[in-house]
Structures are given as structure tokens and as C-alpha cells.
Amino acid sequence: MMPPKGDIVNIVSNDNETSTLLSFAVTAGIVGALQQRALYVNQNRKPWLSV
Q1: What residue segments make up the domains of the chain, in order of their start?
Q2: DSSP string spanning 13-51?
């Protein structure tokens, strides 16, 4: 199985079942952070998810 291409925002925006999730991300103002190359979950700046 190949991982999906693009950032999480692109993946979510192409799926009707996740439109609510995307609208919450837009409202929260976190779309830009979700489009970064890697998501970090700790202070050591180790990537949790890289695309």
C-alpha cells in the first residue's frame, strides 16, 4: 500500500467524509501548520509525520 500524496489538507479536502474536519481546521486557523513538511509533537522537534 502506497501512502497518500500531498499534505494532510489536500488529502482531507478530496474526501467528502472529512469536510467537517477541514472546516474545523480552517476555523481554528491551523491549516498552515497542517501543510508544513513535518508535524512535530514534542519539544525535541522530532517529526511525528513527514510527507
Answers
A1: 8-50
A2: HT-GGGHHHHHHHHHHT-HHHHTSSEEE-STT--EEEE-
DSSP 4: P
Distance from the first to the final alpha carbon of the chain: 15
Measured CA to CA, the distance from residue 43 to residue 41 in angstroms comes to 7
Select from 37, 14, 7, 9 the least CA-distant residue to 24: 9
Q: Tell me the C-alpha distance between 13 and 42, whole Å.
A: 27
Q: How confident is the model at residue 29 (pLDDT cuts 50, 70, 90)?
A: very high
Q: Residue 28: pLDDT above 90? A: yes
